[in-house]
Amino acid sequence: MADPRRTATLPFAPYEWLLAGRYLKTRLIALLSFLGIMLGVATLIIVLSVMNGFRKELLEKLVGINGHIFVAPIDSPLTDYPEVAERLSKVYGVRRAVPFVEGQVFASSPYNGSGALVRGVRGEDMPKITAVAENLRQGTLENFDASGGVAVGRRLAEALGLQAGDSISLLTPRGASTPFGTTPRIKAFPIVAVFEIGMSEFDATFIYMPMVEAQAFFNREGDATLIEVFLDDADRVDEARYAIEQAAERPVLLTDWRQRNRTFFSALEVERNVMFLILTLIVLVAALNIIAGLVMLVKDKSSDIAILRTMGATRSAVMRIFVVTGASIGIVGTLAGVALGLLVSLNIESLRQFISGLTGANLFPAELYFLSRLPAVVDPTEVTTVVVLAMALSLLATMYPSWRAARLDPVEALRYG
Fold first, then answer.
1. MacB-like periplasmic core domain spans which residues (predicted)?
2. CA pair distance 353, 362, nearest whole angstrom
3. Residue 74 has what pLDDT?
4. Cα–Cα distance list, 40 to 47, 52, 61, 216, 339 (Å)
5. DSSP one-letter string for 342-358
6. CA 260, CA 265: separation in Å to the nearest integer?
7. Comparing 156-160, 281-285, 295-299, 391-395, which segment has the lowest mean pLDDT?
8. Can you tell me the distance from the alpha carbon of 53 to that of 225, in angstroms, rounded to the nearest whole number?
9. CA 388, 393, 395, 396: dihedral to nearest 10 degrees?
10. Nearest CA to 37 among 333, 343, 339, 340?
C-alpha cells in the first residue's frame, strides 16, 4: 500500500530546472550551439527583411513612374487621347490616367553623351507623377508646358555635367521626312528641373518633355504613344482590366506591370526562397550541435543520472532535465537572434554607411542594385515563422539524447561509470 504522506513530484519541478541550469554552465558546445542558433535566426531575419525591402522599393519605383496598366491603340493612332484619358480616369479604382509620347534619344552636352528615354507629358499631368514631382532636386515644374524645357534625372544630369538652367541636346533618328528618307533631328532644350526617383536606372535614363514639344520632336502629329493608368491598388489589376477596356470605347491593347516585369520579380522571389532554404541550414547545423552536445553530456553525466534514478527520479524526470537543457539553448538563442536581427534590419542603411565609411568601399553600388539606399522591411509573419522554425528544430534536437538519458540503466552506469 502506498504511503499517503508521500507526494508525487510534478513535471518540471524546481530540481529539474536546477540540474538543467547546472549542466549548461560549463559546456563549450552549448555556447557554440547558442551562437549558431542566434546568428542563424538573425541572418534569416535580416536577409528576408532586405529581400522584402527590395521588392517593396522596386515595386514602388517601377509602378510609381510606369503606372499599373498600359493602354495602347490598335488599328488607328491615339489622336483622341484627351477624351480616352478622361473616361479612364473616371473608372472605379483608377487614381489617374496619363497619356504620353515616348521615344529613344541620344542626349549630349559639351562634356559627354548618353542614351536616354524621352517622355512627353502634358503640364497638367506632371504634378500627378508623384515619383518625379515630389523628388525634385533642382528647378521647378511650374508652367511646364510654356517653359519648352525638360526635366532630367539626376544621374543623367551628373553624367552630362549639367544642372538646372543649362541646355541639353537631344538627337533622334525620327526627324523630318525628305525625298531621301527620314533625317535625324537634333535640338537643344533648357533643363527646367532635375529629379531623383531613387532608382538608378530611371535617374540615369528618363527625360520628361512637354507633350506638344515631344509630338513635334518625334513627328507624332497630335497623337500619343500610350496611356498609363494608375490604380489605387496595384494588386487589383485583373479586376480593373475589363472596366478600362470598356471605358476606352475604342480598340486598345492592355498590358500591366506584372507582364512587363514578370521575369524580374519572379527571379527576385526565387532568390528569396532559395536564400531562406540555405540560411535555414545554419539553424539546422546549430540544432545538430545541440544533439552532439547533449549526447556528450549524457555520456559524461551517466553516473549522476544513475544516482538520480536510485534516489527515485523517474525516467520522464530525467528526460525532462535534458529536454530543458537543450531547449534552453534553442529558446534563448532564438530570442537573442530575433533581437539582433531586428536591431540590424531596422538600422541596415546606417550600418551600411558606417561600414562603407570605415572600409572606404561601396557596399551597395546603385548601378548594380538599381536602388540608391539599402532597404529593409520587417514582416511580423516571417519573423514568427523563423522563431517557430528555430524553436521546433531546437526542441526536436533534444528528443533523442534525452530519450537515451531516460533509458540509461542505473546499475550498468554505476558499474562502468
1. 31-246
2. 9
3. 87
4. 11, 18, 31, 59, 12
5. HHHHHTHHHHHHHHHHH
6. 10
7. 295-299
8. 33
9. 130
10. 333
* Alpha-carbon span 347 to 375, nearest angstrom: 10
What is the grid cell recorded at 70? 498600359
**Out of 5-9, 112-116, 199-203, 204-208, least confident range:** 5-9
CA 233/CA 96 separation, integer angstroms: 12
At 323, which amino acid appears? V
d(CA 340, CA 38): 8
Q: Cell triple for residue 331?
A: 529558446
CA–CA gap between residue 163 and residue 157 (Å, rounded): 6
- What residues contact residue 122 under an 8 Å CB cut-off, 6+ apart? 98, 99, 145, 210, 211
Name the grid cell of 76.
488607328
Across-strand partners of 99? 227
Express each pLDDT in 78-112 by its tens digit.
Answer: 889 899 999 998 989 888 899 999 999 999 998 99
Q: What is the mean pLDDT of residues 252-269?
A: 79
The 10 Å Cβ neighbour count of residue 72 is 14
d(CA 371, CA 61): 9
The C-alpha cell of 291 is what? 544533439
Q: What is the pLDDT of residues 375-399, one digit of tens each?
A: 788 889 889 988 998 888 888 888 8
Strands 185-195 and 136-139: antiparallel
Assigned C-alpha cell, 193: 528641373
Q: What are the tens digits of pLDDT across the range 300-317?
A: 777 777 777 777 777 777
| Across 83-92, 110-119, 356-365, least confident range | 356-365
Nearest to 129 by CA among 209, 55, 187: 209
Fill in the DSSP letter of residue 188: E
Q: Cα–Cα distance between 172 and 219 in angstroms, integer?
A: 10
Closest residue by Cα to residue 371 from 105, 69, 51, 152? 51
User: Which has the closest alpha carbon to 69: 189, 188, 243, 210?
Assistant: 243
Enter the C-alpha cell of residue 203. Answer: 535617374
Q: Say what the pTM is.
A: 0.63
Instruction: Compute the distance between CA of residue 44 and CA of residue 184 in angstroms, rounded to an integer.
Output: 54
